Every structure is written in structure tokens, then in C-alpha cells.
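Batch job 17 of 40 flagged for manual review because the log was empty.
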Amino acid sequence: MADLTLGVDPGGSGLKGFYTLNTFKPELILMEPEVAAVPLHSLEAYEQTKIGNSSPENNAWIEYKGQHLAVGFLARKRFYADLQLQKRKFELALPKVLAMVGAIADKHELANGSSIKLGILLPWGEYQDRALFSTLVTQALADYKFRGQPKSFLVESFICLPEGGGVLSRGRTPGSSLKDQTVAVVMLGYRDISILLVERGEMSVGRTESLGFAKMVDRVKSQTSGLDQHQLVTAMCKAGKNISSKALEPLVVSLDSAYKSHEISTIRKAISNAKEEYWMMLSQWLKLHVTRSADEVITAGGTANFFRSELNSLFSFSRVNWCEHLEKQIFNSFSNQISTKSLDYRLTDVYGLFFYLYGAKPKNNPTTLKGGLTHV
């Protein structure tokens, strides 16, 4: 058994991971997704002037091959990092993994030389890079620095699944087989949307499009002014189907009361217009790529939950699986970390990856998922 087993989802809206150490006790680690290249002297100045001592995942920075990178909360709040959604997840996943492993090592006093069983989710469009990423992350984890301290770990085994692979392996009814069914996995995230189509146990189609929730957020921002992106996303999710004006109030808290109601009305209309336009594009894409012969459609991701009723109607020709038993397991086990963030439905894929990873035999890049799915 590896000293650390870690499943990672390097998502655009959040860096998420489930892990366990020597004994099986799953733990959740959450980090902001930003990464920023920062001069060493700026990081040293930060270390020397900071007051207090937060968790290592909240002040994470790494040094690798001469580069110094702030990751997560530190990158967002101190260095105003951009999400860099135009880049492939593959490009930013390496520093994110290094930072997450470093934070876990510091929290649990994981010694250098410890072994790691590592799993990661990548969009179908980047899944072909898995062998290269395996080589790069193995080399990087063997020799880097976390917050100025040398780190060195041995990757005992590496597994990469396409986004949706986690819910496909663990989100279905226990004991059910894929061999005689057509199953579509629809993953709707912040940056990307992906579809995996499995026919009689074999992957027949995989597709990824940069049509995630960020497209709708950008559309809202183009019709408004001065809105913070992170606050806007939170408010949009809280506003719900009817776009509650109360949920939008934090966006205009600093405005004069005479102008506040006008601005909230403007934002509300912008969200309504953007949602209608985005759903038009999203539904057209889904209609094009999700076959009506599917016996089951597995849906997951934050964007999917936002459009839950619309997706139920769109896929009314099939059995829609929201992986609710996984959501319930996550909420029951980690409610103190996720209850205020509504994260349970955004964690199902990486949760499934973690349990698949924990039960998989130690080897690189397996080609078979439990339940009969091959050629992934």
C-alpha cells in the first residue's frame, strides 16, 4: 500500500482532491484553482511579512526547474492570478498537483521518499496527454520545493481517467454491468463540457468542448460593469432558477441605495439573458452528441446541477442518473467542509476516481474500468 493515495480534479472552478494515508480514512482537500508565476523575492517578502499561520494549502507555493509558482488562495488573493481558462488543464495540472501533495505532506508530516498512488481527471480532449503527464509528474514529484522546503516522493502508480470516468466507475448501481447497455456520461464543468459514450462495455465516442459555465459568466460580465468574477459566480449559483434579487445584493453592497435597486435589476436581466443564450448553445451541443438510444445518461458537475430541471427534460427519453448516492456519501462524510459551498455535486467525479484508484492494482495507465468498460 502506498504511503499516500490521492485523486485529483484540477478543475477551473476549484482544485479538488480526496486522499488517504497509511490507513483507509478518506480526507478532502480543497484549493482555489489559480496559478501564478511569481519572483522568488516576492514570495520571500510574503513569508517574512505575513501575520498568523494558515493551513499549507492556503499559502502554497512551489519551486520547480527554476520557476516559482504561487498556487491556490495565495495566487488569487496576494498575486491576483487569472484562471487562465484559455490554457489546457494539462498545462496547469502539474503545479497544482505539486502544491497539493506538498500541502498534504506538511499537514501530515509525510516524509521525503514516501510513495504515492496518484490519480487525475483530464478532459477527453486532453486524455491523450496522459502518458506524457505521467512522466512529467513523476519527475517533478521526485525533486521540487514546497514553500522553500525540498520535497521528494516516489510515484508508485499513476492513473488518469477522462472526466466522467469517476462517476462511470462508481456512480452506477452496484453490480450493474455496462456490457449490454448504451450509457452516456455528461460532465458539465466550469471550463469544459465532456461526453463519454459507452456502447456494450466499450468507449465508442469521447468529446470535449470549451463550453462550460465560464461562457455564461463572461456573457453576464459583458452586459454589466465592475463585477468581481468570483463573487458573481457565487451569487449566480445562489440566485437559483428564479434569479433571486436578494442573492445578488452582495454584488452591489458598496453602491448608494438610490442606485442599488437599478443595478440589481440590470444584473438580474443580464443573468436571465445569458442563461437563455447559454442553454440554447449547450442544449444544441448535447442534442447533437448524446444519442437518443442511450439507456442511461449519467450527469455530473456544477453546471449540470445549475440546469438540473432542463437536463431532466432534455434527456427524458432515457434514465437520468444524478449519482445521488455519491452526493449523499460525500455530504455525510464531509459536510463540515462543503455544506456552505454546495460542493457535493461537484465532487462526485473525483470521489469516484479516488475509490477506483484505491481499489486498482498498482500499474500505470490502466485500460479497464470496473464494470466492463475498456479502451479508456
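Reviewer: the log was empty due to a logging misconfiguration, but the result itself is present. The CA atoms of residues 50 and 59 lie 10 Å apart. Unflagging and moving on to job 18.
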